[in-house]
Amino acid sequence: MENKRILLDDQAIRRALTRIAHEILERNKGIENTMLVGIKTRGIYLAERLAERIEQIEGSAISVGEVDITMYRDDLTHKNEDQDPLIKGTSISKDVTDQKVILIDDVLYT
Predict the structure, then answer these.
(1) Could you give the CA distance from residue 64 to residue 99 in angstroms, rounded to a whole number?
(2) Smallest Cα–Cα separation from 91: which of 33, 40, 52?
């Protein structure tokens, strides 16, 4: 039998995203020259949700991109040993030169 625990419910996730959005704004003094880059796969979903929160708070949009780190994972040898890794590509539509790039991932604990 598998025990399941809810770490964060919907409301707690919204509060955490709001806190993170405020922290990003405070540490970077706004969003000028700042962009979010979500690590595929689930990090991009968090980056998009953070971007929505930041836009609600700040009144202007922050750039969002996504990056695939498949070839740089430290657990590649443990996963699908008989199969090559599936690379999903990177999509960053804005030049990152002179930008503060904030990487977003979904890892809570490893």
Answers:
(1) 12
(2) 40
SS3 23: helix
**CATH number for the domain including 20?**
3.40.50.2020
- Claim: this prediction has a pTM higher than 0.90: no
- Per run of 10 residues, the mean pLDDT along the chain (length 110 residues) is 83 94 95 92 91 96 87 58 60 82 80
C-alpha–C-alpha distance, residues 7 and 10, integer Å: 10
> What would the two tokens of residue 62 be?
């922050």
Query: Does residue 1 belong to any structural domain of this protein?
Result: no
> DSSP letter at 30?
S
| Residue 95 resides in a domain | no
> Hey, how many other C-beta atoms are within 10 angstroms of the C-beta on 76?
13
Residue-level length of the chain: 110
Q: For the chain, what percentages of helix, strand and coil (3-state, to nearest 5) are there?
A: 40, 15, 45
**Residue 26 vs residues 4, 31, 47: alpha-carbon distances, Å:** 36, 9, 17
In angstroms, the first-to-last Cα distance of the chain is: 23
